[in-house]
Amino acid sequence: MSRMLAIARLATIGSLLAVFATDTRAVDAYASTIQPILAQSCYSCHGEKRQKGGLRLDSPEAIAKGGKSGTVLVAGDPAKSPLYTRTILPAGDDDIMPAKGDHLSQDETAAIERWIKAGANFGPASSAAPAVVPATPTPAIAPAKADAKADPKSDATAEAKPDAKPDASKPDASKPDVKKELPPLPTTDLDQQSLGVKVPDAKLLKSLAAMGIAAHPLSANQALIELDFSQTKAALTAEMLKPLESLADNVVWLDFAGAQVSDRDLSHLEGLKRLTRLHLEKTEIGDKGLAHLAGLTQLEYLNLYGTKVTDAGLAQLASLVHLKSLYLWQTKATPAGVEKLSAADPGLQASFGEDLPEAGEPKPDKKKGGKKK
Amino acid sequence: MSDTSRNRFDHAIATRCDEVTRRSFLAQSARALLGVSLIPAFAGGLFAADGDAAPVSAVRRPTAKNIIYLYMAGGMSHIDTFDTKPGSKTQGPVTSIKTSADGVQVSEYLPLLAKQMHHVALVRSVNSTQGAHEQGNYFMHTSYTLRGTVKHPALGAWMLRFSGRTNPTIPGNVVIQGNSNYPGAGYLDPRFAPLLIGNPSDGLQHSAKPPGVTEEQFAKRLEMLKAMNQQFQSRYDQAEVHGYQSVYDEAVALMKSEDLKAFDISGESQGMRDSYGDSPFGQGCLLARRLVEHGVRFVEVELNGWDTHTDNFDRVSDQAAILDRGLGTLLPDLANRGLLEETLVVVATEFGRTPEITDNNGRNHYPKCFSCLLAGGGVKGGQAHGKTDDQGAMVADSPVSVQDFNATIGYAAGLPLNEVVLSPAGRPFTLADKGRPVLGLFS
């Protein structure tokens, strides 16, 4: 790359940072960032002089029009916008753009992605435009990989090795930019909710993992997590439960299925304002324990099958107006107990279990089990 | 073995043997040295080592935590099962019955499943480009066509690669009654390969210490193995070599784990076992449910025997009865436990069968259109997506390619469909090739 070009790119990146550091402010991202990238890297083939593939990218109208193979820009959806997707293919791919010359840098492709995601405005973004979602992946947080070193690159390198022929003389291609992320699918509620939430402390998650409690990220920025106590083998201790308090902002799914959890232990859940799914099935939990759940108003899924709960306990859950699924198979709870809850929460579906098919009709056929043609 | 000859031996292994030979060598070593043969037939590693269990990029909230993938090997006749054509001459003697889903009918061969269709989203417009068993099977499992130069990973391996496993002492990827060509981990790390289980009623074979070997002796054997491997490992410092060490370590961890009982379906009541049906497939479905309860993320159960070139109607009715009982019990059983919401149940096959009935009263291979289904795991039940024409011969509405179907599964599991992973030769691949998920299937 010539020095001039390098400087030009630096300037582009500089302006980029300026744009995205301020995210929702009304700035003209197209003029300040996107157009310069297109001018520098795309116009030579998709501009005034040449229109490869019938495509011009040198005016908003031309971009909107697309080329012979269709539209190149779907506002709000980088995944469907070849203007973005074609730039992030791995080096050497037949379809990568620009087809000639240097590929776009990661900052440049990220800028295009963000611009499209924010609505692909060609003028100054209106204040109503959606906030730009930060797409920077943070280090993985599941316990086994809690240390920040576990970045995609090292993983990719490990990935590429196993099947490599030992005599391959070529240096393997699995160096830094092996893995480029293509556009994510539409972001979910959880991704939106996770904005501004602090990613959990990796050390804390690691210490939980050491006690058999796994954490799995559920949002793009990994701030929201599932905590899984179901694989713990002994009675839960304060040491295991206490961290729930400092993770109150993060835990949205929580699994105690089959764990040795007591009614009193559930007091540690009271601060979990974001909790939407809670597994308590096959535990010793009873009505006393349910009292601690009354404040978990975001709860949508509550699994109580195989517990000691009764209708009296359910009565304490009237505040859970978002509850959709309530599992009560193998409990003493009855439809009458649920009826009171449904009054305040018409979307509630309670399951008491159904009988499985009886043996016999229709007859199973053993002979055919492993039959080949 | 003298030092020199040992060196030469190591060298030969590292440089000349092909993949399979190296793998089987290692598997044999484990058997011989440890007295266990827990290592899967493919010897591809039981599950991810600790360092790799974490997702690199959880892209979005999954609608399904687990997948139970039921594979109908041989090519399931769509017209005689999930896409009946009452009144058409291609239908043959099979009649249709109403189901618990409004406006969705299935074959009379599926009476139990008919009662569960409110959980099920049928996909009647799947189409493949592969009309032979091996190729079709491979394509369905990997989203790529079979080729000589590279082996692609199947879904279970992708799932472990991206999501890790939930239970550290149990494999995350299990295949029951799978065939020997199962694509497994493909070019991904062997640690993501499935644990293969033959007969579900036998549980996990050879997972106990050999009789007469004391704890102390066993530890000694392990130590000896480590010492013998050390030199080799330090010389050939490669991910795969370390991968096998982690296979041994994890095999030993599993042998000592109480999670082993997840593999033992004798822990279920006789009534429960009877409900699933007295077939390897039915018992495999039951085992799949048990494994999912214990934190296994991906379980595949295979039902072979759908290649009905002759005697189609008798044979499909037999096959369908096995499927009906297994899946017709699995769905309500998962639902009772609150697991169906979080577990995507898939029924897939390599292709359908010809609308025309042959002189042998059979149907031949037919990849142009066929039926698969999804249930639970965030999928909206009670619907049929896509349509075929009156004869069941062409897709008439909303075609779903094999890649689209797999992308839909990946989407449900929250896997990054667009993340490019390079094969060892530097070719870029993704989980479902260029497939796009069918978002209309989700609630």
Kindly list the characteristics that best describe this protein.
heterodimer; A: 373 residues; alpha/beta; 7-stranded mixed beta sheet; 13 helices; 7 strands; 7% strand; B: 443 residues; two-stranded antiparallel sheet; 11 helices; 33% helix
In short:
Chain A has helices at 3-21, 29-41, 60-65, 82-85, 106-117, 152-160, 189-194, 202-210, 238-241, 243-246, 287-290, 311-314, 335-344, and strands at 214-217, 225-228, 251-255, 277-279, 301-303, 325-327, 349-351. Chain A is an alpha/beta fold.
Q: Overview of this structure, please?
A:
The complex is a heterodimer of chains A (373) and B (443). By secondary structure, chain A is α/β, with parallel strands linked by helices. Chain A is built from 13 helices and 7 strands. Chain A has helices spanning 3-21, 29-41, 60-65, 82-85, 106-117, 152-160, 189-194, 202-210, 238-241, 243-246, 287-290, 311-314, 335-344; strands spanning 214-217, 225-228, 251-255, 277-279, 301-303, 325-327, 349-351. Chain A has a 7-stranded mixed beta sheet, with helices on one face. Chain A is elongated. Chain B has 443 residues and is an alpha/beta fold. Chain B has 11 helices and 17 strands. In chain B, the strands form 5 sheets. In chain B, strands 1, 4, 5, 6, 7, 8, 11, 12 and 15 form a 9-stranded mixed beta sheet that branches. A two-stranded antiparallel ribbon of chain B has the order 2-3. In chain B, strands 9-10 form a two-stranded antiparallel sheet. In chain B, helix 9 runs parallel beside helix 10 (312-336). Chain B is globular. Classes of the chains: A alpha/beta (373), B alpha/beta (443).
